[in-house]
Amino acid sequence: MSEDYAVWDIDQILEAYTDAPELRAGVEAGLTALLVFLEKHQLTTCRVTDADGTLLKRALMASEISGEGKLLTHGRNNPVQRWLGSKGGQKNPPDMKLLEKALATIRKAQ
Question: Where is this region: Disordered (predicted)?
Answer without folding.
Answer: 74-94
